[in-house]
Structures are given as C-alpha cells and as structure tokens.
Amino acid sequence: LQISGYLNLLANTIDNFTHGLAVAASFLVSKKVGFLTTMAILLHEIPHEVGDFAILLRAGFDRWSAAKMQLSTALGGILGACFAICAQSPKGAGETVAWILPFTSGGFLYIALVNVVPDLLEEKNPWNSLQQILLLCTGITVMVLLTLT
C-alpha cells in the first residue's frame, strides 16, 4: 500500500474532526445555524468522500478495506463534536463558539482557497477562469443569503 493512502486517511480524519467541531459549535448557537452548517458540510462531504475513496483504491486498498477505512475516519467527526461540547465554558456556550467557529471557518476557507487559487493562476483559458471565479462568488453569495434568512 502506498503512503499516499495513509496520508489521505490522516488528512481526512483531521478534516472530519474540524467538521465535528463546526457542527457541534453551530448547534450551540442555535438549531437553525446547526442545521445550515450540517447541510453545508454534508454537501461538501459527499464528493469529498468519493474522491478520498478513489485515492485509497489507487493507493492499493481493495474496495472493502477502503470503505472500512473511510468509515473509521468518521470517528474524527464524532471526536470533534465531543471536544466542542466538552470545551463549553462554565459561563455558557458563547465563549466556546467564540473560538471554535472562527477556527473552523478559517481552516475551511484556507483549504478551499489553497486548492482553488493555484488552479486559477495556471488556467490558460480566461473563460474557464471567469467561470470558476463566478462559481466561487456564487457559493459565497449563497452562504451570505443563508445567514440572512
């Protein structure tokens, strides 16, 4: 088995840990914020997990082992949620949310931009770059609209 498969599993576990932090912290804010965060993470996770499964197959895992390993990385999300709940301050959830949500949001933005910006800079076709920028702006607009409702 190639080391890339194991590195992907580690990265996926850390990613799922931050997702668990975000989901639990957002439910501490309100049910609405919690459900919106959960839906956003689910929409992100579906293609992400399919891609990770393909990486594991390419690294030499068989289908069953890859599926089991993918499911085991989900424990990172449960640990993240437990950590967020256990990290609540005696003064209330506000202090917990004050550091967890900015931490996870900043991490998600960093990862997204690190993946997108280099591709935009290497793109030779200006039309493709414009489409990617418009889709990125559309995603940001949808997030803003969801927070306003």
TrEMBL record:
It comes from Vidua chalybeata (Village indigobird). Pfam families: Zip (PF02535). Belongs to the ZIP transporter (TC 2.A.5) family. Its main location: membrane. It is found in: Membrane. This is Zinc transporter ZIP13. It catalyses: Zn(2+)(in) = Zn(2+)(out). GO terms for molecular function: zinc ion transmembrane transporter activity. It comes from the Eukaryota. PANTHER family: ZINC TRANSPORTER SLC39A7 HISTIDINE-RICH MEMBRANE PROTEIN KE4, ZINC TRANSPORTER ZIP13. One of its GO terms (cellular component) is membrane.
